[in-house]
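Forum > Structural Biology > Help requests

Title: Can anyone predict the 3D structure of Glycosyltransferase 2-like domain-containing protein?

Hi all, first post here. I have the sequence for Glycosyltransferase 2-like domain-containing protein but no way to get a structure on my laptop. I'd be grateful if someone could post the C-alpha cells.
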Amino acid sequence: MYIKCFFALSGNLDVKVVWAAASQCNVASDMRGIAGYMDGLSARYKQALRHMWGTLDTGYAIRECVKMVRRHRRATHMPSDLPLSAPNANWTAFYTSSGLHKSLVPRFPITDTETAPPKPIHVWNMMVLFLRLFEAHFLPIHLSVILTTSSIFMLFTPTFLVPEFLRAALDFAGWCRLGGWLLMMGYFWRYEQYHRLCVGLRQEEMRKAGLLEDMLANDGFCFSTYLHRAGALDAALFPLGGFIFGAIPALQAVLSHIFTDRLTYVVSLKPQQLAMRSWESITP
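Reply #1:
Sure, ran it for you. C-alpha cells for Glycosyltransferase 2-like domain-containing protein below:
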C-alpha cells in the first residue's frame, strides 16, 4: 500500500508515525524434545520465506517507476502559451481513474483555471525507496554469495597464485567481518541490559497494580535473553542464522517468482497461540 501511494503521488508523501503495539514473540512449536526443536526451525523458515516473498515489491516498484516517469513526460508536453495553473488532461484522467481526486481536491469550490499542477517527482525519496528495497531484497543474497565464493576461493587457491592486491583486499574484508561480529556481540550484551531494565520496570508496575502474585503464579518474568546458558552460543552463531533464515529463503522466493506470484500465506504459531490452543483443549 505504501508503494502504491508513493508512486501515485510521485514520491511526495507526508509520512506519519502511528505507534501501535506489536508482538515481539518468536515462532514456536507445540512439540517437545528434538522433534519440537526441528519443528520450531521449520516454522521459523516458513515465516522467513513468507517475509522474503515481499521481493515481488521490487519488480512492482520498477514498473511503477517507469509508468510514473512516462506520466510526467506526457504532462510536460502541453502548449507553451498556457499558464502553469492550467489543468492537464493526462493528470486529470489519472487522478479521476485512480480515485485520488476525491482526497486531493480541496473542500472549497475552485475554477478550472485555479487547479494546481501536479508536483514534480521527489528524487530524494525515490533514491531512499530503492535503497531500502535493495537492503531488504538484494543485500542478504549478495552478501552471502560474496562471503561463500570468497571463502571457497581462498580455500582452494594456493596463496602464491593470488594477486597481492586481491589478497590484501580479502584480508581487509576478513578483518572487517571480525570487527562487525565483535560489534554485534557487544550489541547483544547491551540489549541484555536493556531487556533486564524493561522487565524490572514491568515487574514494578505489576507490583503497584497488585497483579504481581498472579503474574508470578502463571507466566512469571524472564530477565535473561541471549547471555543465559546456551544463549551466548546462540548469539555467537547469528551469522549462520542469518544465512539459513535470511539468504536461503530470499533465494528460494526469488526463484519461485519465476514460476508463480501466488503466495500461500501460512502463519507460524506464536507462544500466545500455543497457550490458547492448550487452554481450548482442556476447556469442556
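Residues 1-14+29-76+84-137+249-275 form one domain. The first helix runs from residue 2 to 8.
Shout if anything looks off.
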